[in-house]
Input
Amino acid sequence: MNPESMVPLGDVELCVQTVGHPGHPAILLIHGASASMIGWEDDLCERLAAGGRFVIRYDQRDTGRSTISRGGRPDYDMTDLANDAIGILDALGIDKAHVVGRSMSGGTALILAVDHPERVASVTFMSTTTGDDDLPGPTPEFTKTVQAPPIDAGDRDSWVEYVVEAIRAYNGESTLFDEAHVRRYVEMDVARSKDPSAGANHFAIDTPGPINGGFGDVIAPALVIHGELDPVFPLPHAFALRNAIPGARLVVLEGAGHELPPARWDEFTAALLEHTAPSIAS
Output
């Protein structure tokens, strides 16, 4: 992994990190609500880079080392988050990237694909949804677990415990949850964060869609990746996404929940490298 760098974009600074050769096809990894860039773990990014990709990950606003909202209140919406992604590509001198939007950031990926198609070589929607009203909601077990009381942002140990249990809930009924692995990741994430509580701001932002259309207007090659046992967006959400996007392909990660466990990195990496191959995405 290359060293982290701070990229100024107007009145915010975003922490960005890359791995791989800058001349290779770029993959822009955008994580979901409350998650910093290291949710795209080092080893996973390095696997993609070893497949001939220039991998970019970054802390979105209110996560990791990036700018925290003043007064703890988000003063941005999803369109701003999409503009942040464009700003990062500009700062790195990248004309076009393969965009991966995970969970909440499926909305960001949609804005990029529809409103900035000239910047998107392909798009991948991971663990996300069309948002249709007739789709099943989160499981009751998941909803009950994540409705935990607020924790003092300065109590780092309590934050680690809370996030570990939240990730357990995001795994749902999956047997692929590895508590020791998750705990190591969460401890690193909390330690490098300016304020681990700030990520909750993502749940308070407005989420406008693209100006120029919706899923049916995506022209870039599209891939949908979804856990078989996702408790947040159950599997019908994945089928709805595939059906809404012209020519989209669906890969279901067997036995996985909302998270991407190391046990499914091989399948994820193979699918994304195939999807972003020049012969596919040209």
Summary: Residues 5-140+198-281 form a domain with the Rossmann fold fold (CATH 3.40.50.1820). The chain has one domain: 5-140+198-281. The first helix runs from residue 42 to 50.
